Amino acid sequence: MFRRTFWFTAGAAAGVWATSKVNRKLKQLTPESLAAQAANKALETGHRLKDFALDVRAGMVQREAELGEALGLDAPADPAAAQGRELPEPRRRTALGPTPSSHFTLPTRSYNRNEDH
Question: If you compute the radius of gyration of the chain from its CA atoms, what whole number of angstroms results?
Answer without folding.
Answer: 42
